[in-house]
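Table S2 (continued). Query chain:
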Amino acid sequence: MPFCLRPAALALALSACFAIPAVQAQNSVAGPISVKIVAFNDYHGNLESPGTFGPNTVGTINSKAGNRPDVGGAEYLAAYVAAMRAKNPNTVVVGAGDLIGATPLISALFFDEPAVETLNKIGLDFSSVGNHEFDKGKDELRRLQNGGCKLNAGVPDPNSCKGFGSSAPGTFDGAKFKWLSANVIDNATGRSLLPPYGVKMFGGVKIAFIGMTLKGTPGIVTPTGVAGLTFNDEADTVNALVPRLRAQGIESIVVLVHQGGFQNTITGGGTQPTTSDINGCTGDVKNSDGSDSDIRAIVKRLDNAVDLVISAHTHAAYNCSKNTVDVSANGATTTARPTGMPNKTGRLIPVTSASAFGRILTEIDLQIDPVTRDVIDVSPTNVLVARNKRVAQAADSSKGDVVPATDPVVVAAQAYVAANPDVANVVAAYKAAQAPLANKVIATITSGMTNTANGAGEMEAGDLIADAQLQATQPASLGGAQIAFMNAGGVRSPGFLNSAGTYPYDLTYGNAFTVQPFGNSLVTMTLTAQQIKTVLEQQFPGCLGQTAQRVMQISNGLKYSWKVPSGATNNAGCNYIQDVTFTPTDVTVYPPAITGPADNIVIGGVVQNPTKTYRVTVNNFMATGGDGFTTLIGGTSQLGGAQDIDALTAYLAGYKAPAAAYNPADAVLGKPRITKN
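Corresponding output:
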């Protein structure tokens, strides 16, 4: 049954460290109690289908590799959840974070209220917070939880409270599910920002769901979004809650954690699966070098009381359980392999993840002993949310091939279910409301530009965005910028593309927003040559606190080369950058024009004039140390600027007909800008 809580009970729960009291779902029954958990993660407000997806890359349809039906969409998520719920009245629906944030225009334009409203209708009960729940800060997260319109200067924003999925037009009900944040502490109170766990009761037995996000959230979220909050260690948080739960008679414990890993073929690991299935656990979700992934490192320290971990964050699908399957590259061999991840006692416990964007649901069947209240069996299966029965027809390369209804991929993805009409109506209403802006043509491009980096770390889409941000801040009155840096993680998939694959293509605002959905503002600052060298070094793991390789995208006029330093272990060290050259370039004109001689900032790893200064533009996320670029905090004479999406659309306007189309291969764009030696 859907989660509900009376106001008085809610007040009591909030006073008791925010724990959510149990909800009685069914009277006690004899014998093992069967409970179904339906789980998903990283929804990111994908009200509409994100496209095609398959269980793996083997098999063929009309001579093309991979069986990939259309998947997802809120109306189909709702239908599949309902079909799963119909199998067992003891059903609970849970999420593992990033339900909002980095969302398509259909949700983001309306402050992610559409994401929350569709999740309400899907029937979500609990979800952990993810890092993107904090994109707009704790107060906005609380508004989405509790309801009410988005206010600007005390007045409701016209794009808020559309109410298409709420109780009435002009309202926003807020989330009927509960976000859980066990390891997120509000410094003002010393208590968890939101409830640390929720409890459901089936057959007289309680199940606890502990929800939390990765402790590294402050490093990947704009610092203003996590101001006043502390993010504690994930395993320590769970282990500290176990005695409290057991004091309530709870022995069945599920962890919802926004952290994850990937299926990897382990170097030197001998015979292994050669392709990853959505129900696979290739490499036992270790890193490719055999070390523990982030999720394995957490599970390895968990108390033996934890029965199941539902993970997220990496947008990967995996199923490490008794239902794990290994798949060979030619599709000829599918082998069942019971597995899991070891906890601190060495016991293997099931760990799952359901990709992202509503492509997959994890259907998990539990058996619970009604006397001991222990989970005695866990059986998870990742299921494709196939949108419809596909009809077989002749191959048509111009339209793409279709998957026949008899294909095992579709058959395995549950019996056909019809879209939920109520949810479909909500999606249609928001789509109509955003259409005038989404369909506006802003430029013409001659070819696609993805957010896939080359070997040096440069992205075609990233180059364009960096140039747009430089243009927006290059005039003296707007910052006098000479250089722009863009964090790679902020260049969202798929980049600037026509899904039909034909060019030239009239790029729309909706296309651009997909690549730049964060609403970050630009900041121009003064950096010395030494600081520029230092922040470029800070792109690599082991340098000044950096934990991952994060190669920034750079604007026209700047070029540099890098190499892995001799003797470095796991790419650690701070001597990657070899040569850095800056050539003053005016990007406010079309085409851009060189305006001065080249300036060698670094030669052979040595800064030539360490105190010389440059005006550099970044987004506010980076300016405050996001993605580990703490060097930027020391930038001086900072000046705020436009929002990133506004800078992008203004730049692209110079490539709108009758002007010439944007050609990413044009020599005047100064590519390649980054070289790996």
